[in-house]
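Page 37, continued from 36.
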């Protein structure tokens, strides 16, 4: 059936058509060539009743002429008979007069008139951020530092989708991170989630290659992660997280290399061991105590998560969790007693000199000495970290003044791939969020200024009787070829405005094309940093750009 042959004379027909098109368009009609999309929609009119369920905003129109108008007038990409949902929605509201979009029927128009138009909420969703250009420069600067360090240590960058199958995160150890999932059912009835962290995606990617990646490897990534957190200073509902991971090495050489890279970053941004420390422990301490007490291994991960919770809540608050886990309170009390020890020697006294945990920790501290980072590292048996998959060494970077939440955290997770049904593969890494570090740098007053837009020259045609704009284009092009970042003034502006603008964007020069100089084949260049003005031949401008 062709669109033009449909009769849409009655209002009932129009709203019915709208309802039908809604459910069709929400099932992937977007981007379909217009005529075939409509044929499908029209043929469904006969098959469906008026009461068909409406789940999204409407998409319909009344006549072929109007439809074509909608398609043509759709602007951005609306050619060739295609139109976007947004365009059609707008059209529907203005062209179908019998339904106000809220199911109010024929008197909807009157009600609509009375309704005050609701103002757009300009804040981004709670816990998320907009990045205006200055914020973006700050973010890019931070990412650049992370990328530089990663490159220096031989890591390769990777990425994965922000949307993953929910099952990638539904571990049953009672972790906060799984309780904070942004999860939903998509249009294909799949349970999906926005990634709260990168490690499970990395494990999925490794598993997908079925051992074909070649171990060991060092990879890094800077994903945006989503957690439905209670917001506190430095904790938000989305954050960017620098991830550094090494797969395929069993020894603590891995952890030492990771810690050295982390310290390298801190030093690069101007922090010292007086500002930041990195607490190090091994979950094997817990493992060994549990095995001494005869607790089965399958309770290890959940016990670690519980012990981590005890940093924030008293033991009475986790009584229910303990019972669910079938763990005696005395076991946790014994663990806590061991974990209050502040030196490896003290742990060795409890676990014995031959304890694997003790040997590993001692070796790690020796390697840290070899890297020259020992003043940053503090052994602290109470550090457990809240993620279930860590199996060995765990660590956490913290603000020595104790005012901020953890700056970064990581550890060894040798069994994660197994939990997904893969081959046992040793791995360790860390995640380093963007929020706390920026707070810390601000607090220490060592965060660079990001006011500077990076423009080297503002080019400005001082139009009098003569239109010099084309010459301005020619000069801007030469400057750009000479390697400069150039902002050409696009409107006819007064010099006062141009200099104010140049100052606001922190341009270093203003290049003025004025009638007299131009007649001599020259331009005037004002150096705003030195307050000096010079004249340069237009023929030499590219050369000048290279040296300024
Ligand atoms: P995590 O300890 O959950 O570990 O997070 C690592 C870091 O991400 C935290 O120390 C913090 O800097 C930052 N972070 C976490 N949640 C938030 C939040 N809501 N707002 C701001 N920053 C946050 C992991 O995610 C592991 N996957 C890290 C890892 C990689 N382990 C091995 N490889």
């Amino acid at each position: 059936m062709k669109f033009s042959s449909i009769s849409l004379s009655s209002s009932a027909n129009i709203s019915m058509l709208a309802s039908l098109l809604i459910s069709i368009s929400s099932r992937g009609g977007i981007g379909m060539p217009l005529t075939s999309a409509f044929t499908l929609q029209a043929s469904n009119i006969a098959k469906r009743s008026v009461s068909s369920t409406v789940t999204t905003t409407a998409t319909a129109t009344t006549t072929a002429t109007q439809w074509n108008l909608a398609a043509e007038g759709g602007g951005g990409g609306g050619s060739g008979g295609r139109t976007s949902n947004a365009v059609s929605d707008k059209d529907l509201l203005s062209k179908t007069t019998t339904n106000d979009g809220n199911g109010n029927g024929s008197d909807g128009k009157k009600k609509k008139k009375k309704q005050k138009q609701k103002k757009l909420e300009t804040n981004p969703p709670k816990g998320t951020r907009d990045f205006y250009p200055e914020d973006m420069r700050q973010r890019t600067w931070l990412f650049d530092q992370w990328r530089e360090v990663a490159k220096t240590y031989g890591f390769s960058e990777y990425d994965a989708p922000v949307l993953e199958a929910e099952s990638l995160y539904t571990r049953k150890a009672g972790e906060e991170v799984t309780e904070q999932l942004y999860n939903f059912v998509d249009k294909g009835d799949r349970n999906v989630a926005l990634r709260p962290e990168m490690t499970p995606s990395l494990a999925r990617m490794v598993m997908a290659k079925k051992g074909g990646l070649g171990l060991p490897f060092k990879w890094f990534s800077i994903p945006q992660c989503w957690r439905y957190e209670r917001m506190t200073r430095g904790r938000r509902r989305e954050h960017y997280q620098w991830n550094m991971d090494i797969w395929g090495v069993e020894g603590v050489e891995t952890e030492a290399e990771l810690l050295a890279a982390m310290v390298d970053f801190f030093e690069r941004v101007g922090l010292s061991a007086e500002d930041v420390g990195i607490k190090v422990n091994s979950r094997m301490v817990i493992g060994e105590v549990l095995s001494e007490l005869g607790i089965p291994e399958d309770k290890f991960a959940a016990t670690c998560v519980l012990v981590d919770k005890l940093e924030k809540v008293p033991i009475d608050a986790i009584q229910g969790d303990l019972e669910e886990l079938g763990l005696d309170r005395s076991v946790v009390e014994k663990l806590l007693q061991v974990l209050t020890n502040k030196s490896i020697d003290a742990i060795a006294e409890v676990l014995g000199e031959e304890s694997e945990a003790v040997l590993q920790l001692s070796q790690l501290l020796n390697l840290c000495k070899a890297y020259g980072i020992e003043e940053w590292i503090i052994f602290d048996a109470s550090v457990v970290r809240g993620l279930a998959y860590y199996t060995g060494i765990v660590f956490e970077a913290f603000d020595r003044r104790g005012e901020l939440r953890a700056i970064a955290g990581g550890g060894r997770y040798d069994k994660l791939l197994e939990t997904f049904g893969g081959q046992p593969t040793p791995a360790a890494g860390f995640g380093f969020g963007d929020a706390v570090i920026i707070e810390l740098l601000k607090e220490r007053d060592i965060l660079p200024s990001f006011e500077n837009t990076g423009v080297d020259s503002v080019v400005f045609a001082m139009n009098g009787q003569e239109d010099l704009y084309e010459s301005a284009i020619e000069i801007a092009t030469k400057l750009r070829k000479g390697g400069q970042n150039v902002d050409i003034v696009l409107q006819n502006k007064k010099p006062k405005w141009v200099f104010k603008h140049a100052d606001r964007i922190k341009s270093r020069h203003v290049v003025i094309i004025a009638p007299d100089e131009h007649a001599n084949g020259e331009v005037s260049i004002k150096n705003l940093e030195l307050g000096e003005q010079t004249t340069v031949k237009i023929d030499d401008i590219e050369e000048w750009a290279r040296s300024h």
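The first strand starts at residue 156 and ends at 157. Flag for discussion at group meeting. The CA atoms of residues 74 and 87 lie 6 Å apart.
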